[in-house]
């Protein structure tokens, strides 16, 4: 009799238990991390069936609405490295994804928006061979060795401070006022695959910053815990004969100062007008 009762308890528990993973999606850090984990699993397999997607999930690639069933998310990838921001204030995440596969290398910037217990939006900005300064091996080499560990709570910058630091950086491109940017030292920039750092204590991210380039349509995702802010934006917007390029800028900020800057730009090198390698300091992209 006891055996029968035990089996009944086990079966009942299995029936009423929530599906693994799906019930854990929420706007807490733990819930957002679960959303990221499910995305990484989906991107690895090229199969979104394990993601708790909203009935009419919004899907975008390079800032343009796209069909999720034909999207890059359906392409299986062997992911070598990823790092995520968790924004509990806006219920969003951002994940930098690096794939060094020789045949199909990618670096992705993926945004998720969670609505209660469902993923309501997926946005991927991708770069690959032939795009702006692309080098997945270099991206992996440098990104994976940087320290983006959680910052002690007493030393964390506020959300406003993080956004202000990113905004000052962007504004410098238009107005050339680099003295308004809270530069930290050392600071190193990873742009497509090009790295500005030399391992010196005076490494700076101020090198090559131009004027007259409008970085517009900024949408911020912030994670105070790791001192990070990322912006989806348009690089070179509003210039004559140019429509601008979809772009992400990811920043690590410590004590109010910039320490790391990662950029991804969906711009074919063959469509670029200006001097290389300085997108920071070159003409905006041609209209495609």
Overall description:
The protein has 2 domains: 2-128, Nuclear Transport Factor 2, Chain: A, CATH 3.10.450; 153-271, Nuclear Transport Factor 2, Chain: A (Roll), CATH 3.10.450.50. Helices cover 20% and strands 32% of the residues. The protein is built from 4 helices and 12 strands. The protein has helices at residues 2-16, 29-45, 136-143, 159-175, and strands at 53-61, 64-65, 81-87, 92-99, 106-115, 118-127, 183-191, 194-195, 215-223, 228-235, 245-254, 257-265. Strand 4 (92-99) and strand 5 (106-115) form a beta hairpin. The longest helix has 17 residues, at 29-45. The chain is globular, with a radius of gyration of 21 Å.
What is the gyration radius calculated from CA atoms? 21 Å
Shape: globular
Count of discrete structural domains: 2
Overall pLDDT: 89
User: How many helices?
Assistant: 4
Named CATH topology of the largest domain:
Nuclear Transport Factor 2, Chain: A
CATH-defined architecture of the largest domain:
Roll
Q: How does the major sheet shape up? A: 6 strands, mixed
The count of DSSP E runs of length 2 or more, i.e. the number of strands, is 12
Extract low-pLDDT stretches. Answer: 6-23, 281-288
Distance between the termini: 75 Å
Return the CATH class of the largest domain. Answer: Alpha Beta
**Could you state the order of secondary-structure elements as H and E?**
HHEEEEEEHHEEEEEE
Helix content: 10-25%
Alpha-beta content class = alpha+beta
Largest sheet strand order:
2-1-6-5-4-3
Beta content comes to: 25-35%
């Amino acid at each position: 009799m006891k055996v029968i009762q035990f089996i009944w308890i086990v079966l009942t528990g299995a029936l009423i238990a929530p599906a693994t993973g799906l019930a854990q999606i929420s706007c807490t850090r733990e819930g957002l991390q679960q959303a990221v984990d499910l995305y990484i699993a989906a991107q690895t397999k090229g199969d979104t069936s394990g993601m708790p997607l909203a009935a009419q999930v919004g899907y975008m690639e390079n800032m343009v609405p796209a069909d999720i069933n034909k999207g890059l998310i359906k392409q299986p990838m062997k992911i070598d490295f990823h790092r995520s921001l968790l924004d509990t204030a806006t219920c969003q995440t951002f994940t930098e994804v690096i794939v060094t596969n020789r045949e199909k290398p990618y670096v992705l910037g993926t945004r998720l928006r969670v609505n209660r217990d469902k993923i309501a939006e997926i946005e991927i900005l991708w770069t690959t061979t032939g795009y702006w300064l692309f080098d997945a091996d270099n991206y992996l080499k440098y990104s994976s060795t940087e320290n983006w560990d959680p910052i002690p709570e007493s030393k964390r910058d506020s959300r406003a401070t993080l956004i202000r630091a990113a905004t000052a950086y962007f504004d410098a491109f238009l107005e050339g006022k680099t003295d308004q940017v809270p530069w930290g030292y050392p600071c190193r920039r990873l742009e497509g695959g090009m790295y500005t750092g030399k391992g010196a204590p005076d490494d700076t991210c101020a090198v090559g910053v131009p004027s007259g380039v409008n970085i517009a349509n900024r949408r911020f995702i912030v994670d105070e815990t790791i001192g990070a802010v990322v912006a989806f934006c348009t690089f070179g917007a509003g210039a004559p004969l140019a429509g601008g390029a979809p772009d992400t800028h990811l920043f690590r900020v410590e004590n109010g100062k910039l320490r790391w800057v990662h950029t991804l730009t969906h711009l074919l090198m063959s469509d670029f007008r200006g001097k290389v390698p300085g997108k920071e300091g070159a003409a905006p992209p041609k209209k495609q």
